[in-house]
């Protein structure tokens, strides 16, 4: 693992010689997620006064010096920490907030802000579009700072207690030097298969910002409809290589399947985000400036004026009866 810069304020990165330090610092309440890579726990800091205690999400990876797999997972967690940590002093409300990183002989841990729920799917467009604006803003924010997420999907979108969507799990994220001619250029194909852009699935050189936009567009469709645009139903599963190739064939043609219900404006926006030709696909700035948002704002103003008029008319009718 690369050391942090000597100029960094390392009051949120700790290395301990004894595993017992974890139990001295953190109260592990319950496991809230797990996988081959490790587990996620709901925790509290023991040092905080009970009245001020905050729940934390703790991503924990086991260390084993004899295992190359374990070393790779710890390195991935370290890279994830470095990316979200650089945003700590420059936060965005829809990006998970980093709290600390702890390293002991047996564990590597990131602590982050805790949000209680995953984003729901099959919700009304009037509700979902508020989430979409937040998430597009978050991706625009990341890309402007040289960061790509590389694994955007509903399972990596939490909801805060205030109902704001929060992008999490930066395990596949990459940070680029914006001054480099190689910034955002990749030919890697990692990520979740159903959300991979066609060029990323094929492992050909691509702009990772455009592949983020594709994954976000698939996620938006799923939040509205309950499945991805390339699945005929929400029970479709890409289990075999044949399933994947069939699915990716649809993405390559940009062919949506099944039925869906959304406004024409939303459909046009998602078609721009899901163009199989990355050169024709919109970027985050263009998606944020899409006419859909201006139309929705205008529609909201019209509805507000109509509501005010109806309220005034009702008040006048009441007066006429007095």
From TrEMBL:
InterPro entries: Atg1-like, Kinase-like_dom_sf, Prot_kinase_dom, Ser/Thr_kinase_AS. It holds the Pfam family Pkinase. PROSITE patterns: PROTEIN_KINASE_DOM, PROTEIN_KINASE_ST. Residues 26-293 form the Protein kinase domain. It comes from the Eukaryota. PANTHER family: SERINE/THREONINE-PROTEIN KINASE UNC-51-RELATED, SERINE_THREONINE-PROTEIN KINASE ATG1C. This is Kinase-like protein. The lineage of its organism: Eukaryota, Fungi, Dikarya, Basidiomycota, Agaricomycotina.
